[in-house]
Amino acid sequence: MTHGTLNSTAALVTEYPWPKLAGLKVLDLACGSGRNGFWFLAQGCEVTFIDQDLSAMASLKHDKAQLWQWNLEDGSAPPLPIEAFDIVLVFNYLHRPLFSQIAASIKPNGLIVYETFTWQQAEIGHPRNPDFLLMEHELQSVFANWQSLHYFEGRLSDPVSGAQSLKAQLIARKPSQ
Ligand SMILES: C[S@@+](CC[C@H](N)C(=O)[O-])C[C@H]1O[C@@H](n2cnc3c(N)ncnc32)[C@H](O)[C@@H]1O
Q1: Ligand 1 atom with minimal separation from the 71 CA
Q2: Rounded distance from Cα 35 to ligand 1 centre (Å)
Q3: Which site in 34, 121, 126, 169 is 20 to 30 Å from 133, CA atoms measured?
Q4: From the CA of 17, how far away is ligand 1's center (Å)?
């Protein structure tokens, strides 16, 4: 699968064969420009955008969008709400202490959609800090008891710029109980 630039919706989002999305509650965690959450907003979802810096989205006025400007790492933010979201998106962000909160924030039968860099990325560019790089099969191990709907680990090519990156992608369904 290809992937997009940080200005366009990720290919994992646009190419996945989603079921009906309208009305679902979606969280775009560490959303940046909100490029992925916006896509779900356009499908009729209610989208919560969280980032430490939401200035890029300051002008957004949409009755189905919530903006929470939270620092997720310094202890100042409340915990993510429990079983609140049908789908949680995490792209290009890794803070391992949040894994359990992310999992808990998803409703039973809800989906995690995760894409970020693996340790191999350090061999070709940034990020290089191991804290920001997934280990081999790490997402599969974190969501081990979830139903895996899509998994990829390897080299991705930006369809626009041709830039290469080494990433893992997971879409997995939370158990019903
Ligand atoms: C590489 S960008 C990815 C943005 C978006 N997910 C995307 O793929 O387009 C990483 C994002 O994580 C956010 N971030 C980094 N540290 C954070 C923190 N401690 N709390 C909240 N957001 C943070 C940054 O502000 C930035 O928007």
Answers
A1: 20
A2: 12
A3: 34
A4: 26
| Residue pLDDT tens, the chain, 177 long | 444 456 799 999 999 999 999 999 999 999 999 999 999 999 999 999 999 999 988 889 899 999 999 999 999 999 999 999 999 999 999 999 999 999 999 999 999 999 999 999 999 999 999 999 999 999 999 999 999 999 999 999 987 788 999 999 999 999 997
C-alpha angle 146/147/152, rounded to 5°?
A: 100
Residue type, 127: P
Ligand 1 pocket (Cβ < 6 Å) reads 6, 30-33, 35, 51-53, 71-73, 91-93
Contacts of 138 (CB under 8 A, 6+ apart): 118, 168
- Positive or negative, the CA dihedral 5, 44, 79, 141 is negative
Instruction: Give pTM, 2 decimals.
Output: 0.96
Out of 3.10.350.10, 3.40.190.10, 3.40.50.1970, 3.40.50.150, select the CATH number for domain 23-173: 3.40.50.150
What distance in Å separates the CA atoms of residue 37 and residue 46, rounded to the nearest whole number?
Answer: 9
